[in-house]
Amino acid sequence: MTNPVDLMDSTGYLVKLHGDTAIYKKGDEKVAIQGISGVPEIFAKDVFQKLNPKPREGCTNIFMLHQSVGNYVYTDEKSPGLRIEELPENFDLIIDGHIHWRAECRIGLKKETLFLLPGSTLTTQIRKNEAEKEKGVTIYNTETKKTEFIPLKSQRKVIYKEIELNTTTPKEIKLSIMQYLSTLEKEQFKKKPLVRIKTSGKLEGQGIKIDLNDIQKQYRDKFILSFKNSLKSKDKEKSIELVAQLIDNKVSIDNMGLAIMKDCAEKEKITFDYQKVFELLAEGNIEDAEKEILQKKEKKDVEKTA
């Protein structure tokens, strides 16, 4: 159950920064790198307030994190993430490695801090905003405070297509998909492209399931196909996004479970350490989790009796 990041840190392959600072020197120049390791989104704001990171004098100051930032990804009450204005102030560069597409902007009162999303070097989820941008690496110049983006060579093309239809039938939907693919196969690709097709609209009748296996087989030598179905029944307005909800979920299963337990603990005024109990349950240690809950309950009952 050892965290692989901790393991690599102990062997010297990387430096794990969590409330720590690493200072590097080259000639007369010094760079101070601070950061926090990934924490559950519901606690991110509290962690920042507790650590209260400050830039070091005489250094180019860089802060690194791996969290959701509400300006760029979906957040809600149970997974609020961070807001741009809650990020540390007066750093030269803040790098967020959690979001998979590249973006950058100037933040802070004087717009002196560069907020950079370097993006992933591989396509991790086929979404519109990720498909539209190239993958690559970003070079940050500590003298000019500017960046240079270098795209990776031989990238596999990622294509995201939305097909929105009004009231229609499965046959018409399949025809629309094949018409689009027939125009796409006229283009030249160095590598077989990843193609994600999202279909939406209302379907005639109560049935809303469409078998697209024949299309998959027909084009498997030309494209790596995947489909996202947001069709609804005209009669019952049933959604068929059960799988898509899991694929596109912005919260990991662990974070979701912890958020649910936190919410229940607050509503029911539970006294036991829900975070400790959750960790025990996540490790499959049910007996110790049960003991932790019962000990707190027995202590509370004794206090009530007294």
Explain this structure:
This protein has about 300 residues and is α/β, with parallel strands linked by helices. It has 3 domains: about 5-150, Metallo-dependent phosphatases (Purple Acid Phosphatase, chain A, domain 2, 4-Layer Sandwich), CATH 3.60.21.10; about 160-240, no CATH class; about 255-305, no CATH class. The protein is about 30% helix and about 25% strand. It is built from 9 helices and 11 strands. The strands form 3 sheets. The chain has a 6-stranded mixed beta sheet, with no helix packed on it. Strands 9-10-11 form a 3-stranded parallel beta sheet. Strands 7-8 form a two-stranded antiparallel sheet. A hairpin with a 5-residue loop joins strand 5 and strand 6 (about 115). The two termini are about 40 Å apart.
Key features?
306 residues, Purple Acid Phosphatase, chain A, domain 2, 6-stranded mixed sheet, 9 helices, 24% strand
Poorly predicted segments? 235-248
DSSP helical segment count: 9
The CATH architecture category of the largest domain equals: 4-Layer Sandwich
Q: Main beta sheet: strand number and arrangement?
A: 6 strands, mixed
What is the CATH level 1 assignment of the largest domain?
A: Alpha Beta
Helix residue percentage: 25-40%
Question: How many strands appear in the DSSP assignment?
Answer: 11
State Rg. 25 Å
Structural class: alpha/beta
- For this structure, the CATH topology of the largest domain is Purple Acid Phosphatase, chain A, domain 2
Domain count: the total is 3
CATH superfamily of the largest domain: Metallo-dependent phosphatases
Sequence of strands across the biggest β-sheet: 1-2-3-4-6-5
- Average of pLDDT: 80
What percentage of the residues does DSSP assign to strands (E)? Answer: 15-25%
Span of the ends, CA to CA: 42 Å
Shape: globular
